[in-house]
Amino acid sequence: MTQTQRSDAVHTFSVVIATRNRAALLAQTLEALLVQDWPAGRFEIVVADNGSSDDTADVVARAAAQVGAPLVRYLFVSDPGKSAAVNQALAMAEGSLIALTDDDVQPEQEWLRSLADAFDDAAVDFVAGRVLPLWEVEPPEWLSPSVYGVIAVPDNGDVRLPISTDHHQVVPIGANMAVRRAVVERLGGLRLDLGKLDGSARTGEDHEFFLRMLQAGYRGRYEPTAVVHHRVGSERLDRSYFRRWLHQNGRDVARLDAAYESAVPHLLGVPRFLWRQAAGDVMSLLLAAIRRAPAARFSATGRLCWFAGYVREAWFATERLRAARAAAPRPFVSEAN
């Protein structure tokens, strides 16, 4: 496949944010975006309001009215689900580069410039930035970095890394990733059967889009200088929330594995290496209980919750695969274009 080539034009950004009833947090995100070290005439902010009943529209209007602000566009999306909101924003984005973040994230001032520097390499089709936690309260003793993915703060370190089919230890997440618009036009947007839905712990939309990019031959970069700080509120530091999230994520990953088949050996419909990992987690759980190590104990418990979700979903492989293929997004533009 011919890789997406950078044009001679100057980079322009569309920053896409999906939001729902978090006006106060959104205001902080917009404030951080308005002071970016990047020309205001070369980026826009597209806010996709997924059915908010608070003053989200007013918050966006106030940001748009600030002197020297970039173009700030407001889009009300009545279809439920974060993926639906993001997709409608992607369809109207006009930048050559699309940067995705969340309504509870505060990008550092150099965020867009660091992303743009990564895209100066014509071989880079997408970029994953660094996500650091913004703790509102002291983390509990049972929490460890091994389960930080639940709260979307997977710090991948300070070393720049390639991302491809051969190097994919870093998975981009929607809190801090960017992609060339041409990639989105070819592959389409996010899967509507994945991603946050009000009242659910549904996940996987970012992971699936990442797998789709790799399958299409696109290459990326982990850029540690493109930093955002992701709020972690006290309401999320609850063990039952972590267990629910991990179980649901296990189900979602099993569904993705069915859609993107591999040659990995399976046992009872589940990759054999996952059975081995689960056995190791049982031993880790027992040792942590003996040593009275709360963080290690909860980490092992969380991984077993994830495995239980994976097994539950994997045993319905035929139906899941059919649904996964039916839910695959269509390109925003025709291949002929």
Q: How is the CATH topology of the largest domain named?
A: Spore Coat Polysaccharide Biosynthesis Protein SpsA, Chain A
Derived from helix and strand composition plus strand pairing, the structural class reads alpha/beta
Q: Could you name the CATH homologous superfamily of the largest domain?
A: Spore Coat Polysaccharide Biosynthesis Protein SpsA, Chain A
| Cα radius of gyration in angstroms | 20 Å
Shape: globular
The CATH architecture of the largest domain: Alpha-Beta Complex
Query: Portion of residues in helices?
Result: 25-40%
Question: Element order, helices and strands?
Answer: EHEHEHEEHEEEHHEHEEHHH
Overall tally of structural domains: 2
Number of strands: 11
CATH class of the largest domain: Alpha Beta
Largest sheet: 9 strands, mixed
Number of helices: 10
Mean pLDDT: 88
Span of the ends, CA to CA: 16 Å
Strand fraction: 15-25%
Helix-strand blueprint:
Blueprint: E1 13-19, H1 23-34, E2 43-49, H2 56-64, E3 71-76, H3 82-92, E4 97-102, E5 105-107, H4 111-119, E6 126-135, E7 161-163, E8 177-180, H5 181-187, H6 205-215, E9 220-232, H7 239-259, E10 266-267, E11 270-271, H8 272-291, H9 294-314, H10 317-326
Parallel strand pairs: 1-2, 1-4, 2-3, 6-9
Antiparallel strand pairs: 4-8, 5-9, 6-8, 7-9, 10-11
Helix pairs in contact: 1-2, 7-9, 7-10, 8-9
Structure overview:
The longest helix has 21 residues, at 239-259. The protein has helices at 23-34, 56-64, 82-92, 111-119, 181-187, 205-215, 239-259, 272-291, 294-314, 317-326, and strands at 13-19, 43-49, 71-76, 97-102, 105-107, 126-135, 161-163, 177-180, 220-232, 266-267, 270-271. It starts with 12 loop residues before the first strand and ends in an 11-residue tail after the last helix. It is an alpha/beta fold. The chain has 2 domains: 13-237, Alpha-Beta Complex (Spore Coat Polysaccharide Biosynthesis Protein SpsA, Chain A); 240-326. 39% of the residues lie in helices and 19% in strands.
